[in-house]
Amino acid sequence: MPYFLCPPRLPPGSRVAALSLSSGFVTAVMGRYHAGVRQVAAEFGWEVVPAPNALRGPEFLYAHPQARADDLHWALQNPEIHGLLSIIGGDDSVRLLPWLDLDLIRAHPKPFLGFSDSTVTLLAFLRAGVRAYHGPALLTDLAENGGLHPFTVQGLRRTLVEEPRPFELFPAPEWTEHFQDWADDTLQERRRPFVPGDGWQWLQGDAPAQGHLIGGCLEVLDMLCGTPGWPAPELWNGAVLALETSEDVPTPQQVGYWLRNYAAQGILGRAAGLLLARPRGYTPDRVTELYGWVRRVLAEAGRGDLPVVANVDFGHTSPQLTLPLGAQVRLDPLARRVTVFP
What we know:
By secondary structure, the chain is an alpha/beta fold. It is built from eleven helices and 16 strands.
């Protein structure tokens, strides 16, 4: 079983570095950025500090991926910084791989929070033997219109603020994909429309299973596969895979092809369980097709026994859970329970 260092918690008064490790889009929506900074300070008592290059704009950051990696290293080595927060995702964090220093991550274990293209950095932490946190970015749920959602707050508090103890994951009481123009500051106080929660779906499996969490955004994992950023085989052994799709809305067939790749690598054969995020932008028919592909590929791999819970509230959905990657999680299909042991 792999071992991962658990970074210190982030109590009120912590200073958290805001990092642009992918897109530099934030400079186009600075009102949204400041709203996130204010809401994080009001709810958690964290002071958000921009990294040296974080607000230099999309052109500079696109042309200088090493500057983005430098910001990560600056935050790790700076004794006045206690945590690391992704501002927003994008599509090219894979370009940071030549400069990411895993020794620095392990020497200075600090909580890193992000999702989507931050999958590259999340997995870098796991490769360094340090837990990382798959959860909201500064410009997404942390700058949510009308204030932070209580479901988001609960998820962050129990993984990053409160004293560690086991907790159960539950479906969100409501959710939304509603688009709101982040550049329109007049909308910041207007709450987006939410729809009632539709619960999770347990697709297969009868026996309880437990393993460490690993995963991220499938499209980004596809970019990482075959690169030095891909986790070594032992990191997949006995893991519970947490997989999500982005606003690119890959077809169910494409998701099936990616899962076949994991089967061919032996990842599915060694897995303990599977968490599938609510797929963003899918029609009900597409969701049914997606889950059919998941079952099909698992059957091909001889894993009809694998516990699978789908439509889970993480990734490209709001509000979203914060998942401590590297922590142990137990899936109990008969009791319909997911328990995290941080």
